[in-house]
Amino acid sequence: MSNCFFEIKNSTFLASKQNKVINFNLKIDKPGEIVCLLGPSGVGKTTILRSIAGLQKLAEGEIFLNGKLISSQSVHIEPEKRNIALSFQDNSLFPHYNVIDNINFGSKRKSQSKYELAADELIDILHLNNLQNKFPHQISAGEAQRVSLARSLISKPDLLLVDEPFSNIDFSLKGELQSNIKKLLKRLSITTIMVTHDSYEAFYMGDKCGIILDQKLEQYNSPYNIYHYPKSIKIVNFLNRGVLIKAKIIDDETLENSDLGQIKGNLVNKFKRGTIVKLLLQPDDLKHDDKSDLKLEVIDRKFRGTEFIYLVKTKNDDLIPISVDSHHGHYHEIKEKFGIKKPIYIDHLVCF
What we know:
The chain has 352 residues and is of the alpha/beta class. Helices cover 21% and strands 34% of the residues. The strands form 4 sheets. Strands 6-7-8-3-9-10 form a 6-stranded mixed beta sheet, sandwiched between helices. It has a 5-stranded mixed beta sheet with strand order 14-11-12-13-19, with no helix packed on it.
């Protein structure tokens, strides 16, 4: 028995000897939360969704939905009795049904959910207008993904599972669709578990994010906490949003790096004085200052629309990314000197 809306306890998900996730624990306390599962390809994310949906038996552990045990080594509720909808990454549409019939097929499923959702609304939200009479072989992979998602939504599931729902969608449309779907899920309070490999997507869509690495759930937390308080170097490397440099612990609020000097802030984890640690520096940690006497050489510059990411090199050959507003007065070219504001203060000093 579980007091949460949805819970996975001490579970092992097995697709093969290499493709498995062990000792997996996850809770969704109340309906309407969106959870995003992140991880590299082949780590077992889709296997988890298939097991939750009942398409694959659980190797170990327990899965509860609405306080009811739906999967264990001895219990396996059939997929059609779970009121769980799974929208696959690949085309899973009925080839002999046109788009509108594929969508409406989902409405035939019995559900106790009280909200109402019409096919016309989903067609508008997912930009499927003028496709209703086409067949799956006549539409693109991205359009087929959206039709599959519409079919899942119209079935009014207690739990919606989506596998890379925006992977085949044009960049120009992706942002709008993400916004539309998130608003819909929140308005109707549809609990959702979404698999993605895109951390930007996960951080926007998810109330919570789970990062799966090396066959286990490495961290499960809010997007903010995962970004600012990564649990391990594995998480840092996976997110690829910063670099690790050597620093010495001076006191509970001070570090020292041979190139940057003293760095003040709030140490997330406590270490003994004199300990040599690896300090995480993310692009928004250091600030640019043209007048500073602390200057480093520009190695590369990437334009990100609202910002530039400058890659600067220290005397010890550390490469540090630094974010600068794109409206900053002038550009810094490769090999130019780039000033860093002193004294250096970083709110979250994350060290390993």
